[in-house]
Amino acid sequence: MSNPLKILLQHKFLSLSLLIFLLIPIAIVESQEEKRKKQPFALVELFTSQGCSSCPPADAYLQKLTHLAQLNNQRIFTLSFHVDYWNYIGWKDPYSQAAFTKRQRQYAKAFKENTVFTPQLLVNGQNPIIGSDINQIKLKIDHALKKASKTIIEVKDITQKDDLIHINFNTSNLGKQDVIHVALIQNASSNIVTDGENSGKTLSHVNIVRSFKTIKPAGLTHSLNITKPKDLMKANARILIYSQNLKTMHITGAELVEI
User: Which residue has the higher pLDDT, 95 or 16?
Assistant: First the structure.
């Protein structure tokens, strides 16, 4: 006759073993997910203008870089900020904003530079270089892709009502000097320039910043609205969220999401 206590202990042992067996894959998945969140990234910010004759080569390389990153599934995020200080020449860049000129001047102030120029490019907010200097750009991207992301950004949901986009997201490992930028970008565009230094040329751009918002985080959960320009189609738009240390200007985390 079987011992009831022995049978009970055997059942408990089997149940505990099954529970441990089931938890092991979960632990592995969680570990892999944490590793994915901390993956290195390179955020490339190009300050450009359709009124600048030296900008088209930089714009063209940004397109190539964006395309190759997508093909190779690399975490290389590109942004095209169109400044407004070339507009006086005769062609008003339709994507230019004074706010983007202000952002470029903020970089100049941080790096103790007296002037700004186009095309100017930064990788992860560091060491501004000429936007068409392909060798330097590659070196800086390679360097950035060797460092794990410090800040983790997790988008919870995005909703749209009319031209207002509402975003809820969480962050972790933000520093005291960090702010969060939210860029609404137009994936691609091409138009003919009829005046100014690039008169007669058809210029193409990728990841054009159309709306830009900066917030000082209070806590780990964030909620904000960003306005979508009426001419920007939802199918041709995405959102890039990234954190930046205002003291060092180092970009500490980034996440690109579909609307």
Answer: 95
Closest CA to 158 of 241, 80, 81: 241
pLDDT of residue 21: 52
Q: Residue 11: what pLDDT? A: 54
Domain count, the chain: 1
Residue 27 within any structural domain of the chain: no
Residue 15: its pLDDT value, please? 54
* 45 touches 83 (CB < 8 A): no
Q: Is residue 142 part of a domain?
A: yes
Does residue 180 lie within any of the structural domains? Answer: yes
Encoded tokens for 92:
């008003």
Those residues with Cβ within 8 angstroms of residue 250's Cβ, 6 or more apart along the chain or in another chain: 124, 125, 126, 244
Two structure tokens written together for 254: 């980034």
Domain range enclosing 183: 42-258
**What's the pLDDT at 75?**
97
Beta bridge partners of 24: none
Give the pLDDT of residue 29. 54
Question: Is 33 part of any domain?
Answer: no
Q: Provide the token pair at 133.
A: 């200097």
Cβ(35)–Cβ(145) below 8 Å: no
Residue 152 burial (CB count, 10 A): 18
Burial 55-89 (b: 16+ CB within 10 A, else e): bbebbebbbebbeebeeeebbbbbbbbbbbbbbeb
Tokens found for residue 119: 């095309």
10-38 pLDDT per residue, tens:
555 555 555 555 555 544 454 555 555 67
Average pLDDT of the segment spanning 70-82? 97
